[in-house]
Amino acid sequence: MKHFRLTLLAFVGLTCMQTGPAVAQRPVDNASEAKLTEDWRETYAYTVGMQAVIYGFPAVKNINVRYGMIEKPNGQADMPLNTWFHSRRASDATDKVHSSVTPDLLYSAAWFDVRKEPVVLTVPASPDLYYSVQFMEMYSDIFAYLGTRATGGRAGKHLLVRDDWQGEIPAGIDSVIRAPNAAGLLLLRTAIVDRKALMASHKVQDGVAIAPLSKWLRGDTAPETDRDVIDPAPPSSALPFFANLNRAMTESPPPAKDAAFVAMMASVGIGPGQSTDFSALHPATLKGLQRAMVDGLAFLKQVSVAGGSTKFVNHWAYGNKAWGRTAETHDLLTRAATQSLSGMQEHHIEEVVKLRAHHDGEGQLLDGSTGRYTVRFEPGQIPKAKTFWSIVVYDEQYDLIDNPLGRYSRGSVDRDMKYDADGGLTLLVQADTPPKKMIGNWLPIPKSKFNLFLRSYLPGQDLIDQSYVPPPVRKMP
To answer: Where does the DUF1214 domain start and stop, copy by copy (predicted)?
Structure first.
């Protein structure tokens, strides 16, 4: 069916027909009846709560990340709403955002809010250097692109509006983009040609702009100052995850097609318009939600480490073909786990194809405390990409890993790698420093669990159709 369904356990009462003598009715045991009532309430709340974690995790993560960039900055990014923040350096191990950031691009971010009025987004002409502006709604799917692939790298001015906006389009606007939610994230990724010379990348960053429509019309360039966003619930509250979910879903209501599930969540105090004070809930309902909050988040981590429902080749998990479009395919588990928890948002596959490895070629978890590894690309096996490809190392929290070289990836932009005599390429994936002549091929890892992310920007067709066979990660004897 084309509309969204989530199936819960259905409890069916069985009618037993008696053929023998009637059995005397047992006396009512009020204590037993009360216990049965508590049991079903807890089980029901737990079952609905688990599904609510799957449904709403991206929105909860995003209001927390936004808060940490806008209202109470706790990292590199620091900006008001409807304002670009540009990272003028490549990401490194100091960026603790748990979102698999890549060091092979410069990131720029703007949290948009078009509840009051639309915003005008300006992008520059960049015929040679790759860039993309990705439009993410609060549940982590992607609803629009601008940039090298999507708009040919052409300069333009684009109006971002609420889905129900019916205003007049002013002169000079090249397109109107409708946001499924009135709030979300714009993410600009700009390619790095030379890790030591970022001027070309900075020029692209300097060419983007964002402004509320009214200010754009009158040429007002005064900076924005609004930093008022949803405050996350304190961790000490009774149900912090579900309190955050209620706040997030109230700000960004689910689509109408999800109404049946929204009604079911409401039956246990979860969803848009619901209170963040759960004290009025039945104690058994509260207990079930507490269990679901813990087990649901652990379950999403388990799915992420396992790779989720996708194609596996040599223990590399291909990025799901529906990444960035998961609501369209009703794949909400993928949306919560491999798209949001271990990333934050993911590209459509025509923009980027990604493969992640949590395991070596024998199926064992990657762990730098137990040995060294190699990744050997045979001749002709090096990933095809119109822009670049790379392999990046992440820790268990999906952050970059500190190392003596400040090196987090190896790929097509790295001119110091030595190729094998037959044209292949061998990367040394290990914690200890290799011989000097192989330093260029060294991908440092921690002496603990880690994972690898292989990316190809503007990928070859074999990556898009998933016929490409990545090399296994081999553990060295």
So the answer is: 353-460
| CATH 2.60.120.600 domain span(s) along the chain | 308-475
Q: Give pLDDT tens digits for 256-273.
A: 999 999 999 999 999 999
Q: Using an 8 Å Cβ cutoff, are 173 and 206 in contact? A: no
CB neighbour burial string for 35-58, b if at least 16 within 10 angstroms, e if fewer: eeebeebbebbbbbbbbbbbbbbb
Which has the closest alpha carbon to 54: 398, 341, 354? 341
- The per-type count for the chain, helices as H runs and strands as E runs, is 10, 19
Closest CA to 394 of 344, 316, 318, 453: 453
Q: What are phi and psi of 318, to 5 degrees?
A: -60, 145
Give the amino acid at 141: D
CB-CB contact of 93 with 409 (8 Å): no
**Three-state secondary-structure class, residue 149:** helix
Task: Give domain 85-217's CATH superfamily.
Answer: Domain of unknown function DUF1254 (2.60.40.1610)
- What's 308-475's CATH class? mainly beta
Residue 3, pLDDT > 90, answer no
What SS3 state is found at 36? helix
Domain 30-65+231-305: homologous superfamily in CATH:
VPA0735-like domain (1.10.3360.10)
Instruction: Give the whole-angstrom CA distance, residue 275 versus residue 201.
Output: 45
Give 140 or 25, the one with higher predicted confidence. Answer: 140
